[in-house]
């Protein structure tokens, strides 16, 4: 009954709600602003012959949600499907695909202080309660902060005392936390690229009010100022790729700007999707509740295309960004990867391991890499393809079962090395033995294999 009322948004008889909430009662739920009496639009039951019993309708979406260790109830505004039309501009988003993506990719190390920027209904902040000793959550929307406060209070009442100190602050991006330091910053920011056109609704939940991808770019530039040494920032974003450039060129510019203007950060960007302007316009014109074919939808669609054309945008990338402030005085590292297929779920442990591996590689020389007895990770398999009856394979593919699900084409040397990488022999000894068997110069074998070894270590295929 509660699911029918709060998750499906269907009215229910007041008597049914009274028995489902015996302590709170209907009046209590009304006083909390969770329901209103009277079914409204959705409450008119078609074809009823007798007057309906007094009904109550939900004023918000309230649904169960959780992680491995917690069960929560999370309130947010009613979805577009329940409202049955365009959303209000200050709509507070419920838990969606982007929320769960960020939650999955978040590194869950125990941390002292964590920040959830653009908390909305507070879903990321709830996840942080499991591993942060103190949490700050910010939003530009007072309605969002009210929902977050409610959801945290609900979590605290269910797990009495299990919620760490929690502060909610109103303001734009990093303004409310200027001068503070965090070990972890997470954000599912309002990254949707939106034409700055007065005729278009500005949805606070997805549109930060900047032109193009300026909001994500400014987050990249500024987030280092609130990170402790060793601290990590993780967020989702869209980025525009103009004609004649690649998404890696765009990120190269952003990171150079970031290092010049702020504290230089390690950067690991994983592009998960790339759309053309028409696909992007289609997706986001629909998202606010305007139906394809309607006048409103056509106007929005056209405005998006004009906006992208004005900046010569050819592609729009989407992905997950992980930035790390080095804990020591060393050069920063950078990984700009593409992973459009399935990845581990949760992905946080692979990101955590990848950060540690990349940092280790940045701090160690090629000789150090050669002196380690690496082994193939247990989720790595090998595929050999060749003509039927052929003695040797023509293609050897090394496939990672977890993490980013990488597939690497291995040449003879790498395949030979992976075949003996069982944690017993150092890479140096193994490569020297391979050089001897193949009658090659050991220096040549090392020089050829080292970049590949570093790459496989970074992504956890060699551990
Ligand atoms: C996409 S929602 C994310 C909600 C939630 N954190 C999640 O993961 O589902 C983005 C949130 O950022 C807030 N926001 C919009 N503009 C902002 C700004 N300039 N500064 C801080 N927060 C902003 C919105 O009100 C909204 O709650």
Automatic annotation (TrEMBL):
Domain DUF7059 per the UniProt entry, residue ranges: 2-44
GO biological process terms held by the UniProt record: methylation
PROSITE patterns: N6_MTASE
SUPFAM superfamilies found in the cross-reference section: S-adenosyl-L-methionine-dependent methyltransferases
CDD domains: AdoMet_MTases
GO MF assignments: methyltransferase activity
InterPro entries: DNA_methylase_N6_adenine_CS, DUF7059, Euk-Arch_PrmC-MTase, SAM-dependent_MTases_sf, Small_mtfrase_dom
Keyword field: Methyltransferase, S-adenosyl-L-methionine, Transferase
Residues covered by the Methyltransferase small domain: 102-193
PANTHER family in the record: METHYLTRANSFERASE N6AMT1
Family: Belongs to the eukaryotic/archaeal PrmC-related family.
The protein's name: Methyltransferase
